[in-house]
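Support reply, case 0932

Customer input (verbatim):
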Amino acid sequence: MDTVPIRFGIGATEEIAYEIGKRGIKKVMLVSDPHLREIGLLDTVEALIRDSGVSVVTYDKAHAEPSDLSLKQALSFQEGVDTDGYVALGGGSTIDTAKAMNLYGTYPAPLQAYINKPIGEGIPVPGPLKPLIAVPTTAGTGSESTTVIIMDLLDLHLKTGISHPYIRPTVGIIDPLNTITMPPV
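Our regenerated output:
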């Protein structure tokens, strides 16, 4: 069994700057969602990154249940933006969006190229991706350690995905404090 290194504990989010520095990242794409901006967690993480001397570009429009449309919007946002790595702050949908941004930002192709056959072309990921630090704010998806990107193809009314070992995040930072605003059950 292969897994991702995990940093776990109350306050572990403070380790983001260390993990970024350890990987030599100078400019990071931070991927999150509007709710985390509203509650201030995204602002906190942006400050942690900036205070460490790293430049940050934030995409805060990740959708719950990513679709081909929402992923195309995310990929369009990052066009022309040069980054060394990614930080995903959010639930499984946000982490999957960051995985897709990393894949298509590193190896540009039409969306269908990497989607599993028979729906897509099933082209294997050509090589390693940029570092991705996954910071979940929910419990249960495990997206911080999986090798898949799940998405809905709206016109086909179908859920599918992309799977390859290179998609797996570089490290997961699991901080129970990030789940406090999650609804019970």
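We compared this against your earlier run and they match. Two observations from our side: The radius of gyration is 15 Å. The chain has a mean pLDDT of 95. Please reopen the case if you see a mismatch on your end.
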